[in-house]
Design a protein that fits this description.
Order of helices and strands: EEEEEEEEEEE
Distance between the termini: 40 Å
Radius of gyration: 14 Å
Largest sheet: 7 strands, mixed
Strand content: over 45%
Length: 119
């Protein structure tokens, strides 16, 4: 059983910052990749950022230069530093991980954390 637990969401004013964390626990020997997705009301879930175990990253165009994804592989934790937040960043943010070992590989999601950007 693998669980992903997010934290760090909340209410922030435009231009502010938040740092999301996601800890993976359970039977895990290798995770690759980990990522963050978000879903705004009435919209489809979209990729925000993703990082491989080797440190390779990719970001949605809408967050490039503002968000940074990072991992602590020893702690099975992924972070999302969000700066210069905009109202359009308001969404539920979900952590995502592909657990490759032990087999079989599995895709897991966290329960989500609400981020609201508003004055």
């Amino acid at each position: 059983q693998v669980q992903l637990v997010e934290s760090g969401g909340g209410l922030v004013q435009p231009g502010g910052s938040l740092r999301l964390s996601c800890v993976a626990s359970g039977s895990i020997f290798r995770i690759n990749p980990m990522g963050w997705y978000r879903q705004a009301p009435g919209k489809q879930r979209e990729l925000v950022a993703r990082i491989t175990s080797a440190g390779s990253t990719n970001y949605a165009d809408s967050v490039k230069g503002r968000f940074t994804i990072a991992t602590d592989n020893a702690k099975n934790t992924v972070y999302l530093q969000m700066n210069s937040l905009k109202p359009e960043d308001t969404a539920i943010y979900y952590c995502n991980a592909v657990v490759q070992l032990p087999p079989p590989p599995g895709l897991y999601w966290g329960q989500g954390t609400q981020v609201t950007v508003s004055s």
